Amino acid sequence: MEIVIFKKDNLRLGLILGLVAPLLSLVVYYFVKFYPLYTVRDFLNFIQSNKTQITAISVPCLVLNIVLFTVYINSHRDKTAKGVFAATLIYAIIALLFKFI
């Protein structure tokens, strides 16, 4: 059984996947590193108060985007890969802004 939506070559699909994947990775990161010692609110407060940790948290969250980008490039779905890449850049710029502002 194939999931047809992942077979498309569409910029919008790439943007959506590229924006959702890091959020899923952040949830996994929370459960691996912080659960059950910290609540979600404590985790978010920790990120907000420790700006040096933003890079340490954002890099693992963007790893799934790297995997998606590679899969779509290797399968010659360049429009979708461009969307994933654009979303990755957006997340990286936002992470840098949060870190230095």
Structure, described:
The model has no long low-confidence stretch (mean pLDDT 87). Helix 1 (11-33) packs across helix 3 and helix 3 (53-74) packs antiparallel against helix 4. It contains four helices and no strands. It is mainly α. The longest helix has 23 residues, at 11-33.
Short description:
This protein is mainly alpha-helical and 101 residues long. Helix content is 77%, strand content 0%.
Relevant terms:
77% helix, elongated
Note the topology:
Blueprint: H1 11-33, H2 40-49, H3 53-74, H4 78-100
Please give the radius of gyration in angstroms: 15 Å
Number of strands: 0
Instruction: Assign the structural class, choosing from mainly alpha, mainly beta, alpha/beta, alpha+beta, or little secondary structure.
Output: mainly alpha
Determine the oligomeric state from the structure: single chain
Sketch the topology as an H/E string, one letter per element.
HHHH
Query: Helix proportion of residues, in percent?
Result: over 70%
Q: How large is the count of helical segments? A: 4
Biggest sheet, in brief?
none
Q: Please report the distance between the alpha carbons of the first and last residues.
A: 47 Å
General shape: elongated
